[in-house]
Amino acid sequence: MRLLQGSAAWWLAHRLGLRPADTQVTPAERACLARHAAGRRCLVEIGVTHGGTTGLLRSVMDPAGTLTGIDPHPPGRLGVSFERAIARREVVRHRGGRAVLLRSLGHEAAVGWKTPIDFLFIDGDHSWAGIERDCRGLVAPGGRVALQDSRSVPGRPDPDSIRYTREVILPDPRFRVIDAVESLTVLERIASGAPHG
């Protein structure tokens, strides 16, 4: 029975309807994401894991839009990514727009990206280098960027993404903060030019 531990056990419980997709995004943060993603046409999420927020974004986006979820979803001991299997189930539960799951790192997927993004949710690699790479997405003027783990929360350690947000993103004149809930910061792109390098 050791085979049904960890990700495999979670997948089975999810499949049987006994356990929801895992997420560290709080209900208040989810409500904030839904508000700012509503009606958007080109959405990108970096850091899908179980796809809980991916499904949420799909449920509120423009019905003619496209949502791209990006996560490497590495295979586990059994050669399968049970996290990806859960994410696929979460995404198909919602029928709004088109949804694509790319098995990639955020900065790898950004190479050659041509379509301007009007909603970018970053919840991937929270190291300084990781957040710096992921923030190089092509966000259109008027587009929104939601950064998870970008604000200190009592009782939780501060990842590098908080310091990067404070020292690099917040002073950037091309963005302005339009909302903040718990560890989530939402910014609006207010100027043209390539963001953060």
Give me a quick take on this structure.
This protein is an alpha/beta fold and 197 residues long. The protein has a single domain (24-189), classed as Vaccinia Virus protein VP39 (Rossmann fold, 3-Layer(aba) Sandwich), CATH 3.40.50.150.
Describe this protein with a few key phrases:
globular, Rossmann fold, 22% strand, 7 strands, alpha/beta, seven-stranded mixed sheet, 7 helices, 197 residues
> What is the correct CATH architecture?
3-Layer(aba) Sandwich
Question: For the residues shown, what is the average pLDDT?
Answer: 86
Largest sheet, in brief, is: 7 strands, mixed
**Number of H/I helices:** 7
What does the overall shape look like? globular
Spatial gap, N to C terminus = 49 Å
Low-confidence sequence ranges: none
- Number of beta strands: 7
Which strand order do you get reading across the main beta sheet?
A: 3-2-1-4-5-7-6
How much is the radius of gyration in Å? 16 Å
What's the CATH H-level homologous superfamily? Vaccinia Virus protein VP39
CATH topology: Rossmann fold
What would your notes on this structure say?
It is globular, with a radius of gyration of 16 Å. Helix 6 links the parallel strand 4 and strand 5 (139-147). The mean pLDDT is 86. Helices cover 31% and strands 22% of the residues. The chain has helices spanning 7-15, 27-37, 52-60, 82-92, 106-110, 128-134, 160-169, and strands at residues 42-46, 66-70, 98-102, 117-122, 139-147, 175-181, 184-189. Strands 3-2-1-4-5-7-6 form a 7-stranded mixed β-sheet, with helices on one face. The protein has one domain: Vaccinia Virus protein VP39 (Rossmann fold), CATH 3.40.50.150. The chain is α/β, with parallel strands linked by helices. The protein contains 7 helices and 7 strands.
